[in-house]
Amino acid sequence: MNVIVCKNYDEMSACAAEILAAQIKEKPNCVLGLATGSTPEGMYANLVAKNKSGEISFADVTSVNLDEYYPLEPTNEQSYRYFMNYHLFDHVNIDKAKTFVPNGLAADPAKEGQDYDAMIDSLGGIDLQVLGIGRNGHIGFNEPDSYLIPGTHVTDLTPSTIAANARFFDSEESVPKKALTMGIGTILSARKIILMVSGADKKAAVMKLLEGNITTECPATFLNVHKNVTLIVTEDAIDR
Ligand code: F6R
Predict the structure, then answer these.
(1) Residues whose CB falls within 8 Å of the CB of residue 192, separated by 6 or more in sequence, listed in order
(2) What residue's CA is closest to ligand 1, atom 9?
(3) What pLDDT digit, counting tens, does each position of 198-207 carry?
(4) For this structure, is 173 an active site residue?
(5) Nearest Cα residue to atom 8 of ligand 1
(6) Full-model pTM
(7) Which residues pair with 233 in a beta bridge?
(8) What's the longest Cα–Cα distance across the chain?
């Protein structure tokens, strides 16, 4: 795993944006796998600036997001579709018809998962996947468990994830209890992966990942089997 240690959140955000920008320049019609949450917000702000200055164009880019709450309508301000529009899509020259987020209102979420993976396959796969990590080591919404599911699927959120995400909702009770998420296999099928991590509260998960052992109790450790992962981490989230 390549590891890039950054001084702070701003440096991590700029570094990740550089990697995405390089991907877009190398392959203007690339497929980007995108994440939500607090971690990538600064990266998106950098990408918007690079698009506005003319450095990069999203005209031919396709995006596929990692996950979406279930059930939740895309117009809900806490939905990940809303987040992506707010932080990136509304501010860059991307064709929204080529931006995909799992459908939080799917009548048949199991079928939505299968269709989502088939759609990613039909695009030729993901060129570069952006990930954040949960304090418990989740990636996407693949939570620690005795087994992990390979494909995109509907999953129960753990109490710790519901509590961590309650900051975005009016109350903990209004956080949806389920999500649609790319599975570990979907994530690992990306050709390149960057994992962004910021903050001392993520250090335990980062150190577990860097131990190199693979365990379903820390889903991020599965990144150790991938050949092209770059960890971009702030210095307070890693012991050296
Ligand atoms: C978001 C996602 C999650 C987050 C993780 C960290 O699409 O899949 O795995 O990356 O929960 O969230 P933040 O960045 O808010 O700490």
Answers:
(1) 23, 127, 128, 129, 228, 229, 230
(2) 140
(3) 999 999 999 9
(4) no
(5) 140
(6) 0.97
(7) 5, 197
(8) 47
